Amino acid sequence: MSNSTNIFFTSDTHFGHANIIRYCNRPFPSVPAMDEAMIERWNARVGDDDVVYHLGDFTLSNRATASRVLGRLRGRIQVLGYPWHHDRGWVPPTPGPSPFTSASGHAVEILPPLLTISPEVDGRRQPIALCHFPLGEWDRRHHGAWHLHGHSHGNYRGSGAMLDVGVDDHDYAPVALADLPAIMMAKTDRLTARPRASAS
Question: What pTM, to 2 d.p., does this model score?
Answer without folding.
Answer: 0.90
